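Hi V.,

You were right to ask for the full record rather than a summary. Here it is.
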Amino acid sequence: MASAHDRAVLQAIFNPSTPFGDIPGLNQEEELIDDDSGFDTELLKQVKELETQGVSAAEAGDLQAALQLFSQAIQILPQRASAYNNRAQTLRLQGNTAGALEDLDRAISLSGGRGRTACQGLVQRGLLRRLACQDDEARADFEKAAALGSEFARQQAVALNPYAALCNKMLSQVINKLRNPEMQEFI
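Predicted structure:
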């Protein structure tokens, strides 16, 4: 069994674009779940069924039906974050970025920044912000999602961090020189 230090060294060698010592999945002990304990069980069951139908409709390309199903779920349990997150994706697919950002803000707020919905919402908002060239805001969202366990968000946060990119480039060069000492004179 490799030690944490050994895993960190191997991570730096095989993935030089990540910060040294950053081992994906090391701090994620359990799968993220949303806390739905405060909701009436019958209403929650009904809302989850509407969301499942909405996801199926969206996957089938019927975005209008998906939007209606997610909106129904929101009307039944307006304090539950998941339907806002799902509706945001439908709005985004319809080209309504402003509406998607509003729903993502609401989902992240309702989730308290915890759980599966918060993680997904932060990643999705980070992507929309990155597309809008709001890199600082995008990086902040990705860092929060990475802290919740998102490997994709961690990679995006590193890619948007100019200091990490510079350090990783220098580390990569040092490792390459150590691997191939005879190539130093050609570099």
